[in-house]
Amino acid sequence: MPAVTLDVENLGKSYGGPPLFSGLTFRAAAGLTAVAGRNGSGKTTLLKILAALLRPEWGAVRVREGERDLVGEERRLAVGWAGFDLAFYEDFSARENLRFFRRAAGRGGGAEQQEEAEIASRIEAVGLSEAIDRRVGAFSTGMKQRLRVAFAVLFDPPILILDEPMAGLDTEGRRIVEQLIAERRRTGAVLLASNDERDFVDPEQTVTLGR
Fold first, then answer.
1. Of 74, 26, 30, which Cα lies nearest the Cα of 184?
2. CATH number of the structural domain spanning residue 182
3. Positions of E strands within 16-85
């Protein structure tokens, strides 16, 4: 199967004043792309554009499988995103939240046993198996952050976009998320924004904003 890449072409964004960034062009393939820059330089905005949650003023973002552009549902399922403004239903358990997101994306139905196994595997990957049926409203900040990462990998996407994924994590949480990132970058593209250089372990490339 051809590799899935994320191609950024002459990208720019402004909120009515000077552009946050402009002329960004790069390709993210298998490996880690570090997104760096001072506070306010547009890292979160850039990742949301890449995840198709915001529109750019200029340029384009293309998700491609070989020479073929992915669009519609294929594009949505090819990109996993996690950021701090990803909210969960506080009265739902971790399992119920991920089940809801699967079905909202049109991936429900079919074999219930298989669906539950996939949800459990995503939660296990971030070390929350013991809390799978606990109300998310009772989760700590770090546990919610791990659940955001579980949401990002819910559909096993070849492209993973993570905004400050280590924020709020304790030592064990960092170890778990670092291991997940290490596994994912071997076969797919991981784009990670952070203010902490420790989060960038031997990136294949670095995109620096606000130069």
1. 30
2. 3.40.50.300
3. 21-28, 31-36, 58-65, 68-69, 79-82
- Quote the strand ranges of the chain, DSSP E: 4-13, 21-28, 31-36, 58-65, 68-69, 79-82, 159-163, 189-193, 205-208
CA dihedral 174, 184, 93, 138 (to 10 degrees): 10
Question: What are the mean pLDDT values of the chain's consecutive 10-residue runs (211 residues total)?
Answer: 93 92 96 95 97 96 96 95 96 97 80 88 97 98 98 97 97 97 96 94 95 68
Interior angle at CA 161, CA 19 and CA 153, nearest 5: 160
Q: Which two tokens stand for residue 160?
A: 């993973």
The pLDDT of residue 108 is: 66
**Nearest 5°: CA angle at 67, between 53 and 203?**
60
Structural domain boundaries, residue 168: 4-208
Give residue 105's pLDDT: 86
pLDDT in tens, 24-43: 999 999 999 999 999 999 99
Q: What is the pLDDT of residues 174-194, one digit of tens each?
A: 999 999 999 999 999 999 999
What total number of domains does the chain contain?
A: 1
Q: In terms of DSSP bridges, do strands 79-82 and 31-36 run parallel, antiparallel, or are they unpaired? A: unpaired
Of 169, 8, 149, 156, nearest to 81 (Cα)?
A: 149
Q: Beta-strand (E) ranges in 14-55?
A: 21-28, 31-36
